[in-house]
C-alpha cells in the first residue's frame, strides 16, 4: 500500500547515480595487500585489547569485529594478530584507493567517509553512456570511460544488471521508471568494473551499493556483503497502490541504522515510538516495549509528520529543521550532494614528540625518520598514476615505480619546527612550554624525483636542508632540549595534466637518459668496490662511472665522495628552468654543526671533518 505521506516528498529532481564503496575487512586487507600470503591465514588486527577487524578466513573460523583478543585466541588459537595502532598505513591505503575511484567521476564528485567508505557521483558518466546505447542491441554494448577517447572502456551487456538487486521491477514500467532502470543498469556495470579494477590492481575487495542518493546507495550496499554489489531497483516512487521499493527497503531498517540519525535522536525516537505503539495497541503492549523500532513503526504512527518530529527532536543543541530532515530520511529521501573531491591538502605535516631529545645526532636520526614519512605522504597525497601514454613506463632508465606516477602539485616551502622545553627552575621544576619555533626554506627539486627511493631522499633532505634549518633554530651544539619536531611542506602549486606535471616527468626521463651513460647494471658489489669506482673530481672523464651514490656515508674516505649534489642540482636546475623559471633551488647550504656556508657538494666531506674531530 502506498502510504499517505506528503506527495511533494516523492517529487524527484534529475535522479543522480551514486555508487557507495565499503572495503571489506579494511584494516586486515591493508596487511593482506602488503603481504598476500596472509590471505590464507586467519588474520586479526589488534588495537588495545580488542580485534578491530579480521579477514574472511578469521570470520569463517568464528572471529568477528570488536572481539576481545583473549576471546579471539580461545575461539581460534592459530589466529595471526597484527598491531593496527599506527593508522598511517590505513590512511595511505585509503587515499590510494580513493585516488583510483576518483578517476571514474568526470565531475570529481567523489567523497570519502572515514577511511574505508567512498561515495562516487557518476551521473555524468552514466548519462553520457545512456546516449551511446544502441537499444536494438543492448547485449553488445561498450561502456565509454573517456569523453576524449572512444576506445577507452569495456564491453558489457546493457540488457541486464551486474551483481545483485534489491526490490521488484515492474513488468509494465512507465517511461521515467524505465529510464532510471537503464541508468541503474549502467551504474551497476560501472561499479562492477571499478570493483574488479580495485581488486586486480590494488588487491582490495569491496561491498558496493548503487542507487540515486548517498543514503540509499550506502544502505543498499549492506544487503549483500562481503565482496558483492547491490542495486536498488525502481520504482522509487509509489505507483498507484503499489508501494515503492525505496519505502519497502527503508521501512525495515532499525531507526539507529539510518545515517544521520545519531544515537541521541535514536533514543528519543525509540522512546516516542514505544510509548505510542503501546498506547495504540494494548494487546501487544509487552511485545512493543521490547521490540526494536524500525522506520515503519515510526512513520506510521498516528499524526506523524515533520512538525511532530521537530517537537520530539527539537531543542537545545539541535539544528532548526531537524524534524523535516529526519522526515525525509524516513522516506528514503536524501538530496545531499556528494562532496567534490578535494584535490590537494593545503600542507603535509609530520611530527613526533619526545621525552628527551638533546643531541645533534639524535635530532638527525629523528629527522630522517620524519622525512621518510613526509616523502611517503607526499607520494600518496600529491601523485597519481600516470597512464597518459605509457611512454614513461616503457623507459628502462627510469625505475618502474616512479615511472608510473606523476606529481599533481609541488609544494614550494619546507618548514622545520621544534618545541624547546623551558629551562629548569632552581628547584629542578620546569614550566610547560607549548611554544614552537620554526624556519623555512624552499623545497629542493631533488625531492620530486619519483625514480629515487624514499630512503635516499629522506637522507638527502635531512643532510642538505633540515639540519641546516635546525642549526639556524638552535645554533648551539647543546644546552637545548626538545619535546617535539615537525617537518612540513606547504604552498602547493598545482601541476596540470599538460604542463608542469608532465614536463617534470619529461625532465626526469631526460635526466635518466643523460645519466644512462654513467650507469652500470645492478650487481652485488661490495660498497668499497663501488665507491672506488667513483671519480675524484667532477672534471674526471666519466667512462667508468657507476650510478651516483648519493647517500651520505659517514665512514667513507675522501676518495669516495659521491657524485656531488651540486652537479645533480645544477643539471636538474638547468632542465627545470627550461620548463619553469620560477623554481630556483638554493645551491649552497650551511653546516648543521658549525654553521659554515658552503656548496652542497662540499658538505659530505665537511661533515666527515667534524666526525673526525669527535
Ligand atoms: P566490513 O566492512 O564489515 O567487511 O569490515 P571492515 O573491517 O571494513 O569494517 P568497517 O567497514 O566497519 O570499518 C572499517 C575499519 O575501521 C575496520 O577495518 C577497522 C576500523 N573500525 C571499525 N569499527 C571500529 C571500532 O569500533 N573501533 C576502532 N578503533 N576501529 C574500528
Ligand atoms: Mg568496511
Automatic annotation (TrEMBL):
Pfam families: IMS
Region (Disordered): 415-438, 556-590
Listed GO biological process terms: DNA repair; error-free translesion synthesis
GO molecular-function term, one example from the UniProt record: DNA-directed DNA polymerase activity
Acidic residues bias: start-end ranges: 576-585
InterPro entries: DNA/RNA_pol_sf, DNA_pol_Y-fam_lit_finger_sf, Rev_trsase/Diguanyl_cyclase, UmuC
Residues annotated as domain UmuC: 18-262
Superkingdom assignment: Eukaryota
Bias (Low complexity) ranges: 564-575
SUPFAM superfamilies membership: DNA/RNA polymerases
PROSITE patterns in the record: UMUC (PS50173)
Protein name: DNA/RNA polymerase
Organism: Tothia fuscella
Amino acid at each position: 500500500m502506498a502510504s499517505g505521506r506528503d506527495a511533494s516528498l516523492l517529487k524527484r529532481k534529475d535522479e543522480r547515480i551514486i555508487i557507495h564503496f565499503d572495503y571489506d575487512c579494511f584494516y586486515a586487507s591493508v596487511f593482506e595487500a602488503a603481504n598476500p600470503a596472509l590471505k590464507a591465514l586467519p588474520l586479526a588486527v589488534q588495537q588495545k585489547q580488542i580485534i578491530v577487524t579480521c579477514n574472511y578466513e578469521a570470520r569463517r573460523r568464528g572471529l568477528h569485529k570488536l572481539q576481545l583478543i583473549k576471546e579471539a585466541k580461545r575461539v581460534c588459537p592459530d589466529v595471526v594478530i597484527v598491531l593496527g595502532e599506527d593508522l598511517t598505513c590505513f590512511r595511505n591505503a585509503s587515499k590510494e584507493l580513493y585516488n583510483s575511484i576518483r578517476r571514474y567521476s568526470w565531475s570529481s564528485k567523489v567523497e570519502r567517509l572515514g577511511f574505508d567508505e567512498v561515495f562516487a557521483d557518476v551521473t555524468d558518466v552514466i548519462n553520457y553512456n545512456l546516449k551511446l546505447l544502441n537499444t536494438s542491441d543492448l547485449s553488445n554494448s561498450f561502456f565509454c570511460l573517456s569523453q576524449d577517447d572512444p576506445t577507452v572502456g569495456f564491453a558489457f551487456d546493457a540488457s541486464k544488471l551486474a551483481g545483485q538487486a534489491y526490490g521488484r521491477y515492474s513488468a509494465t514500467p512507465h517511461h521515467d521508471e524505465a529510464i532510471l532502470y537503464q541508468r541503474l543498469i549502467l551504474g551497476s556495470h560501472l561499479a562492477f568494473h571499478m570493483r574488479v579494477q580495485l581488486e586486480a590492481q590494488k588487491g582490495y575487495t569491496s561491498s558496493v551499493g548503487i542507487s540515486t542518493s548517498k543514503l540509499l546507495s550506502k544502505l543498499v550496499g549492506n544487503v549483500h556483503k562481503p565482496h558483492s554489489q547491490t542495486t536498488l531497483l525502481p520504482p522509487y516512487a509509489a505507483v498507484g497502490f503499489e508501494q515503492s521499493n525505496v519505502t519497502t527497503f527503508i521501512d525495515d531498517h532499525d531507526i539507529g541504522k539510518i545515517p544521520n540519525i545519531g544515537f541521541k535522536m535514536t533514543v528519543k525516537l525509540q522512546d516516542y515510538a514505544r510509548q505510542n505503539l503501546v498506547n495504540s495497541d494494548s494487546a501487544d503492549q509487552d511485545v512493543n516495549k521490547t521490540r526494536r523500532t524500525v522506520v515503519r513503526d515510526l512513520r506510521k504512527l498516528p499524526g506523524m509528520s515533520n512538525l511532530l518530529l521537530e517537537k520530539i527532536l527539537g531543542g537545545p543543541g539541535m539544528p532548526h529543521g531537524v524534524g523535516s530532515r529526519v522526515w525525509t530520511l524516513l522516506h528514503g529521501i536524501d538530496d545531499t550532494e556528494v562532496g567534490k573531491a578535494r584535490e590537494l591538502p593545503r600542507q603535509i605535516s609530520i611530527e613526533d614528540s619526545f621525552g628527551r631529545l638533546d643531541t645533534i645526532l639524535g635530532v638527525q636520526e629523528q629527522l630522517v625518520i620524519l622525512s621518510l614519512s613526509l616523502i611517503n605522504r607526499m607520494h600518496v597525497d600529491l601523485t597519481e598514476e600516470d597512464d597518459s601514454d605509457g611512454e614513461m613506463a616503457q623507459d628502462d632508465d627510469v625505475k618502474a615505480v616512479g615511472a608510473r606516477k606523476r606529481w599533481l602539485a609541488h609544494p614550494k616551502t619546507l618548514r622545520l619546527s621544534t618545541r624547546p622545553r623551558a629551562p629548569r627552575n632552581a628547584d629542578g621544576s620546569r614550566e610547560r612550554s607549548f611554544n614552537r619555533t620554526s624556519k623555512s626554506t624552499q623545497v629542493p627539486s631533488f625531492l620530486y624525483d619519483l625514480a629515487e627511493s624514499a630512503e635516499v631522499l629522506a637522507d638527502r633532505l635531512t643532510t642538505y636542508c633540515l639540519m641546516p634549518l635546525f642549526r639556524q633554530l638552535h645554533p648551539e651544539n647543546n644546552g637545548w632540549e626538545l619535546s617535539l619536531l615537525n617537518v612540513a611542506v606547504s604552498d602547493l602549486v598545482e601541476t596540470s595534466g599538460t604542463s608542469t606535471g608532465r614536463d617534470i616527468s619529461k625532465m626526469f626521463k631526460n635526466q635518466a637518459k643523460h645519466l644512462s651513460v654513467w650507469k652500470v647494471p645492478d650487481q652485488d658489489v661490495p660498497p668499497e668496490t663501488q665507491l672506488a669506482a667513483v671519480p675524484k673530481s667532477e672534471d674526471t672523464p666519466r667512462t667508468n662511472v657507476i650510478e651516483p651514490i648519493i647517500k651520505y656515508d659517514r665512514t667513507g674516505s675522501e676518495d669516495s665522495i659521491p657524485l656531488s649534489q651540486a652537479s645533480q642540482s645544477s643539471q636538474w636546475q638547468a632542465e627545470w628552468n627550461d620548463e619553469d623559471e620560477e623554481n630556483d633551488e638554493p645551491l649552497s647550504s650551511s653546516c648543521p654543526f658549525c654553521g659554515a656556508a658552503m656548496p652542497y657538494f662540499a658538505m659530505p666531506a665537511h661533515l666527515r671533518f667534524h666526525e673526525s674531530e669527535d
